[in-house]
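Work Package 4 report. The design task specified in the project plan requires that, given a folded chain encoded as structure tokens, an amino acid be chosen for each position. We show below one input record used in the internal validation round.
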């Protein structure tokens, strides 16, 4: 091919080529050990057996288009959360909703704000829409309302905030989120991504439902990929003011939610004992992992979600730990793309996985100390 052939070929928009593709958590490792995937914050207990049955029941309906209005699922979500089903929009994962919201509200040249270690999909969505990503600094690996507000310009159209954030596990209390919503200019859309809301046990936490109900510039997104254990079905939802709901429904693919996902979602919402078990499991093992790993001399960021950020001395040591654990079938998430090259993110797993991780980390620390006694 000559260079003139290349120039004549279809060219993506420059902003598309500026996107660094999303790096998912690894799923495999070169080892004969049993694999524990602790790299994508999936549920340790998996889905409700009732949700699995419901998804299977949809096998009989595969020839028929799904219900494009997602009526029954939206009603089930609305009933569970005490909100109006007319203001709920479902997406193929909350990722799809993040893209729809961004395409609807951000024009080429507009600015979208997210925080230094914020979830990486926000940057991708801003660039995909032709916008300019603007990064607000964090304080102690936590979003900072004043830092976000300082980045607002007349071009700002969207502020993204994961609360709690992935990959740090930190959160902002309700009063800070309210202050942010109240301080933003009224034309700026605040997207509160509450993917991990169900795991949070703090009294001063609010996922954003109240703000989305009472303000016309706040949207809350949620997912069935985390506590409900349905990541493979791709199902998320958002609660938004009527005008915002109207805008994203114009963009939404008419059949973006498939029938197995709808049925499984409804069944998952109804299995309250399973949800309670999943929360209890996480609360117990998150604290256990935090204490055990800290006791090994590996600091962890205090997390309110279903994962922990582990801090090593430097990027080389984090890579060495990642390799050491992978060899033992324990797959964590490298987070250098989040400007955290010295860290690894660990999802809370089953009791078996959690105990193996702590034992392996102890082995790693011991091997390191034997090799390099000064640094300990
Ligand atoms: C996992 C995650 C999501 C959920 O994505 P889905 O597309 O619903 O699977 C959204 N936001 C954050 C911060 C996450 O970590």
């Amino acid at each position: 091919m000559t260079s003139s052939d290349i120039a004549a070929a279809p060219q993506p928009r420059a902003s598309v080529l500026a996107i660094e593709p999303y790096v998912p958590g690894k799923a495999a490792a070169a080892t004969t050990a049993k694999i524990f995937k602790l790299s994508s914050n999936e549920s340790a207990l998996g889905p409700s057996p009732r949700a699995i049955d419901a998804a299977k029941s949809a096998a009989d309906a595969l020839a028929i288009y799904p219900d494009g209005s997602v009526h029954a699922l939206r009603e089930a979500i609305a009933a569970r959360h005490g909100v109006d089903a007319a203001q709920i929009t479902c997406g193929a994962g909350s990722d799809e909703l993040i893209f729809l919201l961004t395409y609807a509200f951000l024009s080429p040249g507009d600015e979208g704000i997210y925080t230094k270690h914020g979830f990486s999909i926000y940057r991708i969505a801003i660039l995909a829409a032709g916008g300019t990503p603007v990064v607000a600094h964090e304080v102690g690996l936590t979003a900072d309302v004043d830092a976000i507000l300082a980045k607002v310009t007349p071009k700002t159209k969207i502020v993204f905030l994961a609360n709690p954030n992935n990959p740090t596990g930190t959160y902002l209390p309700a009063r800070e989120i309210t202050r942010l919503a109240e301080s933003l200019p009224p034309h700026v859309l605040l997207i509160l991504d509450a993917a991990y809301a169900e795991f949070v046990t703090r009294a001063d936490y609010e996922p954003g439902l109240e703000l989305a109900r009472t303000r016309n510039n706040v949207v809350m997104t949620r997912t069935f990929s985390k506590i409900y254990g349905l990541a493979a079905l791709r199902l998320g939802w958002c609660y938004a003011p009527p005008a915002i709901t109207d805008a994203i429904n114009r963009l939404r693919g008419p059949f973006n939610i498939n029938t197995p996902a709808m049925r499984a979602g409804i069944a998952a919402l109804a299995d309250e004992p399973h949800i309670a078990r999943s929360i209890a499991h996480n609360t117990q093992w998150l604290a256990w992992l935090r204490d055990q790993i800290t006791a090994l001399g590996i600091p962890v960021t205090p997390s309110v979600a279903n994962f922990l950020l582990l801090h090593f001395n430097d990027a080389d040591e984090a890579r060495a730990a990642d390799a050491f654990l992978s060899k033992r079938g324990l797959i964590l998430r490298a987070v250098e793309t989040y400007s955290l090259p010295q860290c690894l993110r660990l999802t809370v797993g089953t009791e078996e996985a959690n105990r193996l991780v702590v034992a392996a980390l102890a082995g790693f620390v011991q091997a390191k100390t034997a090799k390099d006694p000064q640094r300990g």
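Residues 41, 93-95, 119, 162, 166, 193, 195, 223, 225-226, 231, 236 surround pyridoxal-5'-phosphate (CB under 6 Å). Validation will be extended to a larger panel in the next phase.
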